[in-house]
């Protein structure tokens, strides 16, 4: 199965949004073995596609199989008493065979409390992701034989069958509290506490165009912000179409999805007080269909197709084994979005304007994919300036920025692995040691080799207003940096404030469990700067990791994120974090050669600020 990004497999909304596509049927099978590679007989195996759940057991040979599945995002979960859970989560586009190994099992002990630290009995695990490897839709599987995971009268909740040394992300739920997403819980003997907060009850009914209740519809309460829509809470409707959920007070969007109906446009939802009622009427369904083809006119199964109205995603689905998608839309006009598989792009813009007019069904012309081009070229210094390498190239308008070092002679070769929303991408080439840079644009329709000549520039040294929502470190600016104190060190010998003097220190407070786009992009920038300043004695990148993780966990994070710069584990109880007043991560702080705090809001100008401090 094509692997999903770990962040996306946490949300139950994905189950309802990406409906399986009807087709002749694909199969998913494989073998389950233990740590000694011996077959595991009698293991329970579940497969989840949308609202459909299949269940079987392994044979004496450890084999299992499911037939007549759809092209869909698929969750496979394997459980055998006494062994750790196993599984696989991904996009099933053709017949697949997988090998699942069930290792020794450990248990995660939790205590669920409310904001007054009183135990919460009856809290349940709605869903979880195990070690960023596979998703377990616990609530959905518990209706099909999977053990329900609930807290007892003392708020104690044990999650058995987890890999020792692994970690879990989960969503905890309770009828009296808002859903709570817990981003990182290491599997260890130490009990962890999680808190639930009282929420406002949101109730209502989902009806079809004739006014009848719609059973098994998924109701989503969405937050909007950087990165688009994110589900805050969700619930299935009952046989009469009624739903009930809880969320914290605030402003949201709400919608409902069902594989046989079009979805209503997300509506505003003002949540306050003890209870809010919001009914959702599903609109008349129109069908928008088309076919997505790879080069050579081959069908492209498993491609995401979405329908967006006024910037809001209303429908989403996948192409079937013939490359065909069918979207049920509730309004005639919007944009069709195509998200090709890695390495490909649509020949036209990924946004295709669509107007069904009075038609109940519209079949679009075939959508042809092409391979994403390679972007190549050379970066040169100004005339009469010696070239010495150390050129950092960064994309400026991609949601997942590209960062790389040009070759010793300034050459670069960039292979995009996903299609941007625009056909023209802006890059910046900047010298790591000199105030030379140049922004340049590349059209995906004309990716001819570029010759980029750097130009002198003046750094942006303007002060930025404090961001009260994150970390306001303005009181530290201009003063000697607070002491750092770490219990463990990685990629370096132990460091102190005194040993940092004489160097420009790029100090970053972070946590390897933070997989947010902001955190991932920040780490990418720091990796690029660490590489750019290799051999430069007066620049150091230093990470201070959150104290809640063990040394072994941090080692795993360093490998997973390819972190090669110096890192220290903060001393308990969060010694350095408290000294600096860090409440939100990641946070970058720049220290000058005298050990004085100079900047803490570098934004997109980190490299030029480092160069400014070097020339003082």
Q: How many distinct helices?
A: 7
CATH class of the largest domain: Alpha Beta
Q: Any idea what the CATH architecture of the largest domain is? A: 3-Layer(aba) Sandwich
User: In the residues, how many domains can be counted?
Assistant: 5
| Number of strand segments | 46
**Uncertain spans, ≥5 residues at pLDDT below 50?**
2-19
Q: By helix and strand content, what is the structural category?
A: mainly beta
**End-to-end distance, in Å?**
54 Å
Major beta sheet summary: 7 strands, mixed
Q: Percent of residues in helical segments?
A: under 10%
Radius of gyration: 26 Å
Mean pLDDT: 90
Overall outline: globular
CATH superfamily of the largest domain: Glutaredoxin
CATH topology-level fold name of the largest domain: Glutaredoxin
Oligomer: single chain
């Amino acid at each position: 199965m094509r692997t999903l990004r770990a962040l996306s497999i946490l949300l139950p909304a994905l189950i309802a949004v990406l409906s399986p596509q009807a087709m002749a049927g694909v199969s998913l099978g494989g073998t389950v073995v233990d740590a000694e590679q011996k077959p595991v007989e009698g293991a329970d195996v579940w497969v989840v596609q949308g609202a459909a759940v299949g269940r079987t057991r392994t044979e004496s040979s450890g084999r299992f199989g499911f037939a007549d599945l759809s092209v869909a995002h698929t969750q496979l979960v394997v459980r055998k008493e006494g062994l750790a859970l196993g599984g696989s989560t991904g996009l099933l586009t053709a017949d697949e065979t997988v090998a699942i190994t069930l290792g020794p099992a450990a248990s995660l002990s939790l205590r669920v409390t409310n904001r007054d630290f009183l135990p919460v009995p009856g809290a349940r695990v709605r869903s979880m992701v195990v070690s960023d490897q596979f998703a377990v839709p616990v609530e959905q599987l518990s209706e099909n034989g999977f053990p329900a995971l609930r807290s007892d009268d003392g708020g104690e909740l044990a999650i058995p069958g987890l890999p020792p040394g692994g970690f879990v992300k989960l969503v905890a739920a309770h009828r009296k509290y808002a859903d709570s997403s817990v981003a990182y819980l290491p599997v260890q003997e130490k009990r962890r506490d999680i808190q639930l907060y009282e929420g406002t009850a949101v109730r209502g009914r989902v009806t079809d165009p004739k006014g009848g209740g719609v059973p098994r519809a998924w109701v989503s309460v969405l937050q909007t912000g950087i990165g688009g829509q994110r589900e805050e809470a969700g619930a299935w409707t009952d046989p009469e179409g009624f739903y009930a959920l809880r969320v914290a007070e605030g402003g949201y969007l709400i919608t409902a999805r069902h594989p046989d109906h079009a979805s209503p446009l997300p509506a505003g939802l003002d949540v306050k007080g003890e209870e809010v009622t919001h009914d959702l009427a599903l609109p008349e369904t129109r069908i928008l269909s088309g076919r997505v083809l790879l080069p050579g006119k081959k069908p492209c199964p498993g491609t995401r197709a979405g329908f967006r109205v006024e910037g809001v995603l209303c429908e989403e689905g996948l192409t079937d084994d013939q490359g065909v998608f069918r979207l049920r839309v509730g309004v005639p006009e919007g944009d069709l979005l195509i998200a090709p598989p890695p390495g490909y792009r649509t020949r036209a813009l990924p946004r295709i304007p669509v107007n069904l007019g009075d038609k109940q069904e519209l079949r679009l012309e075939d959508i042809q994919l092409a391979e994403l081009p390679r972007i190549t070229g050379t970066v040169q210094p100004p005339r009469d300036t010696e070239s010495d390498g150390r050129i950092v190239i960064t994309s400026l308008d991609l949601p997942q920025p590209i960062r790389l070092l040009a070759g010793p002679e300034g050459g670069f070769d960039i292979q995009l692995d996903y299609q941007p929303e625009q056909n023209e991408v802006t890059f910046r080439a900047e010298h790591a040691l000199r105030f030379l840079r140049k922004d340049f644009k590349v059209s995906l329709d004309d990716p001819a080799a570029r010759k980029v000549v750097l130009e002198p520039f003046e750094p942006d040294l303007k002060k930025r207003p404090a961001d009260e929502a994150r970390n306001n470190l303005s009181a530290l600016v201009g003063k000697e940096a607070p002491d750092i104190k770490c219990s463990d060190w990685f990629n370096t010998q132990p460091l102190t404030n005194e040993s940092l003097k004489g160097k420009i220190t790029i100090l970053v407070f972070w946590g390897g469990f933070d997989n947010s786009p902001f955190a991932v992009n920040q780490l990418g920038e720091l990796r690029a700067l660490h590489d750019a300043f290799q051999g430069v004695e007066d620049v150091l990148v230093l990470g201070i990791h959150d104290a809640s993780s063990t040394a072994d966990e941090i080692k795993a994070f360093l490998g997973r994120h390819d972190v090669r710069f110096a890192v220290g584990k903060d001393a308990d109880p969060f010694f350095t974090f408290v000294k600096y007043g860090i409440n939100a991560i990641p946070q970058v702080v720049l220290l000058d050669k005298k050990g004085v705090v100079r900047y803490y809001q570098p934004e997109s100008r980190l490299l030029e600020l480092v160069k400014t401090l070097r020339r003082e």
